[in-house]
Amino acid sequence: SNPSLLILPGDGIGPEVMAEVRKIIDWFSAKRDLQFDVSEDLVGGAAYDKHGVPLADETMAKAQEVDAVLLGAVGGPKYDDLDFSVKPERGLLRLRKEMDLYSNLRPAQCFDALADFSSLKKDVVAGLDIMIVRELTSGVYFGEPRGIFEEGNERVGINTQRYTESEIERVARSAFELAMRRNKKLCSMEKANVMESGILWREVVTRVGKDYPEVELSHMYADNGAMQLVRAPKQFDVILTDNLFGDILSDCAAMLTGSLGMLPSASLGAPMANGRPKALYEPVHGSAPDIAGQGKANPIACILSFAMALRYSFDQGAEADRLEAAIEKVLADGVRTADLLAEEGVQPVSTSEMGDAIVAALDAS
Ligand code: NAI
Ligand code: MG
User: Fold this and answer.
1) What is this model's ipTM?
2) Which among 260, 305, 335, 351 is the best mutation to test ligand 1's pocket, defined by most ligand atoms within 8 Å of the CB?
3) Closest CA to 348 of 273, 298, 282
4) How many domains does the chain have?
5) Domain CATH number, residue 176
6) How far is the CA of 85 from the centre of ligand 1 (A)?
7) Is 0.90 topped by the overall pTM?
8) In this predicted model, what pLDDT tens digit does every residue of 103-143 receive, in sequence order?
9) What is the C-alpha separation between 339 and 91, in angstroms, rounded?
């Protein structure tokens, strides 16, 4: 049977960028004979409007069954005053929690045509292609005890950094598997010099590494890692780190490469019966209410998220390469949505024109 894909466009620009992904999916089905069982459903504010909840139980059940979920974005001003329990982002959080997506993949990839967008010198980032693997379901954002407590005559705010061996082991394994599919180089970042969880992290990662003797493993203190990311990012291939450091390092790495409209992500969980991980793919950006409904959104982040699905859920690495090359070609030709405009006098294309240009580049590939 065909691989299955659940599409959740969501709110704001989510449906606009997802319409362009649909064109790409149709192209692969017509021209490469790659068929997917695609179903579509509601999430976020759109689901709240219909069901009174940001993710219906039936949608959750479907997400658990498919090979991959592709999500647009959720949220918007219309929903800002809703009760916390039904806010749009709760739909996304429910997906991540119930699918137990502990491994968050954030690529930082620099398309040559956009190297001028980087906050760094062009030669530092040209050709950059690194992947940050961030632990997503544990660590200091979840550890107990947490809270604001009375202590003597003042209050104290407490969070707890806490990692079990099995939590470290499963995300490490996912990072090593990724390194095996890429350039067999992995750098693990923590602060083993000052944190107990960092000592355990380094020990467990080293132990898991014994199962992957081909992967060149190194360790770095996360603060040095932040410096190195900005000084010489091309020294890295896969970076593995915890939830807190990963939050910061992945945002930092993202800005090495430019616009929010270009950044995809994947969140992976435990392997399913077919051996592939549970997976949710989504652009890093939100629903962009300031430009929603105007045809201005850049669909590339969402299209690159589908490329990640091709690579990591559907075992179609060569087709993912083809799609990324088509995007590279379109950018090299100077096609730009408004968020990518640098040069004077260049006219921006619309969301749908960008999708059409990528399909045309695929046709020429
Ligand atoms: P945002 O990412 O939606 O927008 C930030 C800025 O980047 C805006 O100026 C927007 O126009 C621009 N932008 C974002 N994506 C773009 C694209 N594809 N093409 C061109 N420009 C793009 O973040 P913001 O404004 O903080 O949040 C807006 C709403 O989105 C809120 O309701 C927020 O809760 C939600 N949100 C949802 C996320 C998700 O679904 N994963 C992630 C972040 C925010
Ligand atoms: Mg962040």
Assistant:
1) 0.98
2) 260
3) 298
4) 2
5) 3.40.718.10
6) 21
7) yes
8) 999 999 998 888 877 778 888 998 899 999 999 999 999 99
9) 28
